[in-house]
Amino acid sequence: MASVNTEECFSVALKLVKEGGNLVRDAIKKTKNVEIKSSVVDLVTESDKAVEKLLITGLSKAFTDHKFIGEESVAAGEKCVLTDEPTWIIDPIDGTMNFVHSFPYTCISVALWVNKEAEIGIVYNPVLEQMFTAIKGQGAFLNDEKISASGETDLGQALVFSEMGTSRDPEKVDTVITNITTLMTKVHGFRDAGSAVLAIMSIAAGWGDVFFQFGLCCWDMAAGCLILREAGGYVCDTEGGPFDLMSRRVLCASTPELAQKIAKLLKQYQPVRDDADK
């Protein structure tokens, strides 16, 4: 089985993420060159590409035998395959729509998976200077202070996060609207952060209690789910079963009890898997 020096990997990745954060911080208030990917709300900017290039170049130089899954690399045609080999999974700018509108709720997400398990998670909002980090087995941190999930189990007291996402497939849109309508009268409140990764961080930090979404990609979840688990939170499939990084479905909660209560209420939707032949 593959093995890595996680402390060394974390140190190198953290430095590169901070460098990438400088690019995001400098660019967020400027005019962006925006391209459309799968739909008119699925966007990419020069900054997305520049941050991903910086991260992959730096990590490749430090760890010559490691693999990579990057959002923009996959969009450009590379295969999205997770093996047992050490693999960096990168979202250079999560919340690109927010970034395009200069809304400061956007972040860089970097994870290292080894033997198909998360070992390192780094999520950085450079605009608000929020650095979320975790190494497997060592807890979760925000700006070097330990964080923990809320522990909430009561559905009626739960603050729930979800996203419309970047797909305008009619079945997906109907699923999202149905679930919001169902939950609105049963939970304490509902929020759309515009960044799936930062929504997961809100659950990890105890600022909310549930996040679910259909249609995410592995780079939207790879770092965040480790950080949430290290904060004492719970991650599963939207039906309540085991979490599958490539399934494009996730349910994050402060407790297993709350996750199961939400899962029973959700109308389900199955996007095309990340690792499917397309």
- The overall average pLDDT, rounded, is 94
Count every helix, treating DSSP H or I runs of 4 or more residues as helices.
8
Portion in beta strands? 15-25%
Give the overall shape, derived from the CA principal axes. globular
Strand/helix succession = HEEHEHEHEEEEEEHEHEHEEH
Q: How large, in whole angstroms, is the Cα Rg? A: 17 Å
Q: What class, by secondary structure content?
A: alpha+beta
Number of strands: 14
Can you summarize the main beta sheet?
A: 7 strands, mixed
Strand order of the largest sheet: 3-4-5-6-7-8-9
What share of the residues lie within helices?
A: 25-40%
Task: Pick out its properties.
278 residues; five-stranded mixed sheet; globular; seven-stranded mixed sheet; 14 strands
Word description of this protein:
This protein is an alpha+beta fold and 278 residues long. 34% of the residues lie in helices and 24% in strands. The chain has 8 helices and 14 strands. It has a 7-stranded mixed β-sheet with strand order 3-4-5-6-7-8-9, sandwiched between helices. The chain has a 5-stranded mixed β-sheet with strand order 11-10-12-14-13, sandwiched between helices. Helix 1 (6-27) packs antiparallel against helix 2 (46-62) and helix 6 (196-204) runs parallel beside helix 7. The mean pLDDT is 94.
